[in-house]
Every structure is written in structure tokens, then in C-alpha cells.
Amino acid sequence: MRTLLPLAVAVPLLVAAGLSAASAAFQRRNRWALDGLAILTAAAVTAMLMALTVGAGSAQVYWFGGFRPAHGVALGIDFVASPLSAGLAAFAGLLVTAAMVFSWRYFERVSTFYHALMLVFLAGMAGFCLTGDVFDLFVFFEVMGVAAYALTAYRTEERGPLQGALNFAITNSVGAYLSLAGIALVYGRTGALNMAQVGRALAGHRPDGLVVVSFVLIVVGLLVKASIVPFHFWTADAEAVAPSPVCVLFSGAMVELGLYGVARVYWSMFGSALGHRGAISSTLLALGAATAVVGALFCFRQRHLKRILAFSTISHAGMFLMGVALLTPLGLAGAAIYVVGHGLVKGALFLCTGIVLHRLRSINETWLHGRGRRLPVTGAVYILAGLGLADLPPFATYLGKGYIEESGYSHGMAWVTAVLIITSILVGGAVLRAGGGVFWGLGDAPSEDPRMAAEASEEHSETEEGRGRTPLSMVLPPLVLVALAVAVGLLPHLGSVVQAAAVRFQDQGAYNATVLSGARVLHAQAPQPPEPTGITIADVATGVGSAAGAAVLALVSLYWRRLPLLRRGLEPGLGLVGPIRRFQSGVVTDYVTWIVLGLAVIGGALALSIR
Amino acid sequence: MTPGVRRGVFLAGMAAVLAFFLWGLVGLPGFGHYPGPYGDVLNAIGIRQTHATDIVSAVNFDYRAMDTLGEEFILFAAATGMGVVLRHLREERERSAVDEARDRTDPGTSEAVRVAAITFTGPTVVVGWYIVSHGQVSPGGGFQGGVILATAFAMIYLAGEFLALKRISPVPLADAVEAVGAASFAIIGISALGVGAAFLANVLPLGHMPGEVDSAGTIALISFFVGIEVTAAFVVVASEFLEQTLIVRRH
User: Fold this and answer.
1) What pLDDT digit, counting tens, does each position of B222-234 carry?
2) Which of B21, B76, B190 sits opposite A17 (nearest CB)?
3) Quick count: other Cβ atoms within 10 Å of Cβ A134?
4) Strand partners, B248
5) Using one digit for the tens of pLDDT, what is the confidence trace for A491-535?
6) How many whole angstroms separate alpha carbon A215 and alpha carbon A185?
7) Chain A contact for B235, CB < 8 A?
8) Measured between alpha carbons, how far is A268 from A249 in angstroms, rounded to an integer?
9) ipTM for this prediction
10) Are B64 and A76 a contacting pair at CB < 8 A?
11) Cα separation, A181 vs B21, whole angstroms
């Protein structure tokens, strides 16, 4: 079982290099071999990670090169499979598999570049989840980063992808440098890179400047990847131009991995040292709430199908961060379930958008209005996934969100519930509006804002030519993803199992003992007690309420001009065009300035409250 | 943001960030007060354990070989990404470079550059090869040596023509060599599993004496393949760029 840990990373890397070395053998005739091999590899890695998730028990630790720690000093690098870390990696593997199946018939002209990069990306994500060493975390952060930049620029025939990739690469590299500086600082203090060992060295001392600064630097670098306001600008630029199957991974897994990194670093290195202060919880909560609201508002105003989804991802990243920021087991468990539910439905939405682009050769909601009636199956899947995104039970999303709300409520933060419901309604409303208009021709086409339209019509088909029909290998993946989102929501005892995993994740002492002395800790204990995970009326009610609210909002905005209202000229959300243009400028120096500003504010807030 | 506003906000933010960073820096131990324990332990047991007299290489290719595997594939992904971005596009056609400034006469490669480049090509290969193959005993290794080896190809470009470089190192071949180099690293790691050891464990004989070229087991082997991969990756990247600017023009 333990041997699966290195293999989950080494196998995709080896296959990627192998495909690349033998690229001459995969000419047009042998496309099936290339795709088959890549899909098979992704599926095998997913299976390995699934096995690790289920069989991890307390936690499996693997020491590379056999360098086991002696006297609490780790000489080598370790991988740790706990249910949450291996589970997230397995989920990323599942999305890669779905994306690879979808890509089979999606790209006409594919060299081995695409498959090799996707597999390196998968290896990067798996390694990032599994590693127990903070420098190794940085290495895998870069592995997935470099593969992701190249995949964003995949359609180089146009200017957009190159620019999106460049913005993505520069902002994320700035984030990586910040993280690296933080790692250097904490290494300078502790002489250790193993997260458990660093955590042990830091615990029990008053947190001084060095600890706070290195924590903030590492976390801010990860928050850039997690597209948290004000570090989120690259997300919309990159996801608007990257190929749709690649967007599935950006939205469903990579952004969430940034948040996983924050949780991992906090709960294994800094948690005890910083003493689980309210200041950290409130700072992260504020960032999460701001991200959720800003993302939702911007999302609602978009007319570019992929940008709608990209801003929805930003908004959801904010909601996940709120779950993590509560620092409770139930909050973390809720975030974990929400990540899975969201990744599944968002993956389905991006793939449906890919089908729209493939068949109808446009991505502009206004132009597409009613034209999607030719695609009834895609339309049905899109609307279903949209309802799932708005947290309709029994999609897994409602359960995740419900747990975050419950945990916030029981800790005296009812406003968390309010923020989550409002953002869900806005985001779900935007997606359902687009789906209802495009696929069912409901209401009126939204009026064309010339500047927004110019943006949306930049997008051309990702495929060589529009097709008469959609291949089964493109319809099936979104269908399966939506079905899985329902299935996960219906799993019995999901809440209590995931919360137990979250408790283990938050028990720094148990993590230390498992990694550094190979101890088996049977009863993990988190600083905050676990909470009941029974599905309450409130969970179902807020889920149904959000979905109903989103549906109503979508209908109102579709039929806006026919409503007997006073000011027909105004459309909902029109006032947001200005801010969107101003902030989402596409100028990368603006984005870097925001990163610096965000770092200064977060650093200042924590410096004043912790010191 | 207008450039003025941006500059103002950036400088103000940067000042705050610098102050914050300084607050962290003062918490570092003073100069010469190494807090340990990593370096101390390695200095005590590293040579005995790995037979590598260059502990940096021992860390890179043995103790923390997993990091290096990741870094190797960062380079692989970067070179592959270069192929994605710079590959021939449909609307581009090949033609030789023409100086766009018509009134400028082509000075040609001067004899001095040509002679210097030819003179140094051989020694560069020897030095690069030495650095690649002696990483386990003295400062160096695959990363550094690979870069030096790649400069030999740059010398050929300087001495002759781009087309000569293209003939001796066609991009598909360099691509394949690069991929083989990267794959070999992963294969070495997996082979250790085959003999019942941990992934990337140093399972080869360590040699008689630390400091001998044939010592240090997989450290030398990994360093060798890293050298191959780095050389090929740099050749790929340089050739793709040269090809883009010298041959491929927008139609």
C-alpha cells in the first residue's frame, strides 16, 4: 500500500516523458494509442490515490530513499497519505481523467505536448497534496504551475491565450517567490524543512516577527494560487482563454489546492506556534468573504460563458476559505465536501461550455441566446450542474455549504450563512441565466454591452471545425461528473467520516508523532471539538432556498425587459461594468501591485494583532 | 490604474512589505550561529552514508532527490511548453531571415568570433563533461555541467551558421534526448522499488572510496542523466527561439 505513494507521482511523470520521447511514433494514425495511454495513466493514478484514501487509516508515511528520521531530525523527504490529502489528490486525478476523455475527440490536431503536460500537471497536483516537506511543497507548486502556464497558452494561434498565460505565469511566480522567501526564513530559524519537524521546533515559543512574517509570506503565495481577493486577477484571464478541459482542472482542483496548502501549512507548521488566535481566523474569514462577494458580483455581470464560470470559481474559492478559516473540524470538513461537489459540477459546466464552443463556435451569451436548443442533452446537463452550483440538495454542494454555515453559526457567526447564501444565489443565478437563455431560449437575449461583447467574441473555436454532432466521448464526461455530484451528496455517513478526517488533519501533535516517530495515533484530537454532522432541516432548507433564489434571479434577469417595472432601461448588474473594466484590466503590473498591496494589508493586520 | 497611481500604490505597498519583511529578518540567528541540525548531521554522516565527497550533490541526488526529480520535470514541462508556444503555426511559413533594415549591410561573422568559438568548443565540451561526471566528488553535477555543455552548441551557432546548429542538433532529436534524460531519472527511482528498497534509494554499489569517480552509486548516475536532460533542454529552448526569429516569420 505504501509503495503507491511514490508511484502516484512517478508513474505520470514517467509516462509523460515516455510519450514525449516517442512522439514520432504517435502520428495521426496512432492517436488512439496516445489518448488511450494518457487516459489509462490518469485513471490508474486516480485508482492508486483512491486506494490510499480509503486504506490510509490513520496516515501512511513514506520516506524517499529510505531516510527515516532519527531523533526527530528528518534528513529526507516524506509523503504522507491522510484521508484528506490523498482524497484531494484522488479527486484531482478523477478530474484529469474526465478531462482527458473529453479531449480525445475535442482537439483535432494534437501532438504529444498536450498529453505530456496534462500528466505532469497531474503529478504536480498529486505531489503537492501528498508531500510532508515544505520545500517539496514549493517544488510541486512550481511543477503544476509550469505545466498549467503552458496548457493555458495551448492555442497559440491567437493572442489571448498567450496573454492570459503570461499574466497567470507572472502573478503565480511572484506568489511562488513570496512563499520561497517565507520558507527560507523559517528554515533559517529551525534548520528544518520537514513540516512536522518545523512545527515541533516552533511550538512552545512565543511567536515573534520571524514566525509571523514567514507564515504570512508562505500563505500569501498559496493564496495567489487559490485566487483569493486581491490576488485573484489571473484566474479570469487564464480561464477565459485556456482550453475548456484544462479549465476543469484549474477550477476544480488547482485553485482548491492553493487552499489545501494554506490548511496544510497552518495545521502542521504554524498552528500551535501561533496559538490558533482569533486574529488569524478573522483575517482569513474576511479575505474569504470579500472573495466570495466580489467574485459573485463580477460573475453575475459577465456575458462570456467561460468568464462567468471563472468568476464563479473565484467566488467559491472565497467560500471554501471561509470554511477553512473557521479553524473547526466541521468547517474544514464542509470545505472539503464543498470542494468535491463544486469541482464536479463546475467540471461539467466547463465541459458543456466546451461542447457549445465546439458545436456553435461562440462563447458569447448574447449571441448564443436560443441557439443552444440544438443541444438538448448538453443543455440539460448544464442546467442541472447550474442547480448543483446553487447548492440544490442532494448535490454534494449543499452538504458542504451547510456544514460551513452550521459551524459558523454555532461559533456566533451567523453572517457567514448570509454571505454564503447571497453569493450562491448570485453565482447560481448567473449560470442559470446563461443556461436558460442559451439552451432553452428563455426570455430576451441580454443587451449587448459593446465592451463586454468585444471580450466575449475574442474567443474562437478551440477545435478545427464545428461538428454536426457531439461525439459520445464529449457528452459522457460531463454527464458522469453531474451524476457523481449527486452520488457524493447521497453517500451515507459522509459528514461524520469527513469530519473525522478533518479532526486528524487538525491534530498537529498526532501528525508530528506519525511523521517523526512513526507512531500510530488512534484517537486524534483537534483544538476545536467536532460538531454533530446529522443532516438538518436547515441544511436542506438553505440549499433549496439558494437554488430557488438563483432560479428566480435567473428568470428575473432573463425576463427583465418584460416586467412591469419603472426603469426598463436598467439591467440588473449594469453598474458593475465600470468596476470590472477598471479592476480586471488585463495589465499584469496592476495585478502585481494588488499582490503587494494585499500582502502589506494582511501582514500589517497580523503584525498588529499578534505581536 | 493609471501608471502614476499604480506607481504610487506599488511604492507605498512595497515600503510596508519591506518593513514587514525586515521585522522577520531580525529574528534570524546571527552570522556564524548556524542553528542546525540539518547541516551538522549531514557533515557528520553524509560522506560515510553516500560516499559522495560533495555533500551538495548528495543532498540534491540522494537525500532530497525527490525535490530534484520535481525540478527536472519543471524543466521538462518548461521545454515542452516552449514547444507549445513556439511550434510552427498554420499561418506561418518558413523562410530564411532577411534583415528588415534595408540600408544595413550584413557584416557577416567576423573571423575573430569564428576562431574564438571554434577554439573554445572542444574545451567547453570537455569541461562540461567533467563537471557532469564529477558532481559526486567535487562541486558540480548535472545541472551545472549540462548548462556548460549546452553552451558548446551555442558556440557552434556563433562559429558557423544557424543551419549548422540545426543539422547537428535537430529539435525533434533534442526533444527526444531531453525526454529520455527525464524518464531515466524516474526509472532509476522506480528500479529501487524493484529490488525492495524505497523509491529513489541509493541501491547501486557505493564504490571503494569516497572521492573516487566511480563512487556514490545512483548519485553519479542521476547526475549524469540530469546533465543529459539539462543539455538537451537548453538546446531545445535556444533552437526554438532561434528558429522562431531566424526562419519562421508571420506570413
Assistant:
1) 999 999 999 999 9
2) B76
3) 26
4) B94
5) 999 999 999 999 999 999 999 999 998 888 888 888 898 988 888
6) 9
7) no
8) 26
9) 0.91
10) yes
11) 9
